[in-house]
Amino acid sequence: MKKVIVILGQTATGKSAFAVKIAKKINGEIISADSRQVYKGLDIGTGKIARKEMRGIPHHLLDVINPKHKFTIAEYQKKAIYAIAEIVKKERVPIIVGGTGFYIDAITKGTVFPKVPPNPKLRKNISKLDGRQLLMLLQKLDKKRAQNIDIHNKVRLIRAIEIATALGKVPSLITKKPKYKFIKIGLFLPSNKLEKKIRLRVKKMFKKGLPKEIKKLKKSGVSGKRLKELGFEYFEPTEEKVIKETVKYAKRQMTWFKRDKEIKWFDASKPINLKLFL
RNA sequence: GCACCGGUCGGAUAGCGGCUAUUCCAGGUGACUGUAAAUCACCCGCCUUCGGGCAUCGUUGGUUCGAGUCCAACCCGGUGCA
Q: A151 CA to B51 C1', in Å?
């Protein structure tokens, strides 16, 4: 089985630079696993790697869609699997890099998503209902799913109703055995160091012109509502707010990663011996 | 010194005689089926055999069947007048 390197971890741990270093060493190509770096024009706010930092290493799944449109995990999965195959065909090593745990799992665990695209009309209609009403609706459509769903989570309820409406029920969760051997490397920083790095990173973001980037997005037709969806950096950001939210986000990322016992963790503030896993 | 206002969880805040002291933030734990930097749940005084038990609204007294809430004195902070 072909090897695929996965580099994951909280935001601001230095994944991107580390990945380039490895790619150089093992003849690799990088596939981003970031739910927002797929959008064109979201550069500063998402901490997207700059062209020259790539040092000639091809990066896949960056800038693949206009931010006016919504990208979903199913599309990500498809494109990422395709990219892996292409890289392998070239006899190079795919290196998945990112902090979006959901996206990473979609590839490494082979999650099979129900083939039901978002239905904006339905979503709009039922989003007016409160949680109770949504639950009742789902119970009517699919009793089983209604039993194990988070009944307070409107987003999930709406999605479940969407699937059940299209398919008659929500298929139970299945995964497809992956065709590759994934080697998962986690980069972490002690919390005080992480906070310091986040602080620095956010300050730099503003210096580099985050407000200008937002202005540009607006000018190109991205609505205020859409900007809000694109993350806290893109909606009336202040340095303090972005720092605070980023710290909280980093904690949520860790909650996700902690479940995965296959991850080998390395302290990013110390030199890492690459031979350990290559 | 006098007068007024205030002192409630780490911070902010509600509570104006009645049962279980509210909400927000911060913090902790966790969930995750096409929005995932999203969305959501639980905990957040102490002890617990997870049934519950015991505390607690600046302090000390008092009134009352019952006090964070009313009264008195004191302590602390703010504002005004001297």
A: 27
> Nearest nucleotide to A253 by CA–C1' distance?
B37
The CATH number that domain A2-111+176-276 falls under is: 3.40.50.300
Pairing of the two strands A180-188 and A264-267: parallel
Domain boundaries, chain A: 2-111+176-276, 120-170
- Euclidean distance between CA atoms A235 and A211, whole angstroms: 10
Strand B positions within 7 A of protein Cβ atoms = 26-41
Distance A228 CA to B11 C1' (A): 28
Rounded, the Å distance between the CA of A245 and C1' of B79 is 37
Model's pTM, two decimal places? 0.91
Walk along chain A (278 residues) and give the pLDDT tens digit of each residue: 899 999 999 999 999 999 999 999 999 999 999 999 999 999 999 999 999 999 999 999 999 999 999 999 999 999 999 999 999 999 999 999 999 999 999 999 999 999 999 999 999 999 989 888 999 999 999 999 999 999 989 999 999 999 999 999 999 989 998 999 999 999 999 988 999 999 999 999 999 999 999 999 999 999 999 999 999 999 999 999 999 999 999 999 999 999 999 999 999 999 888 777 66
What ipTM does this complex have? Answer: 0.92
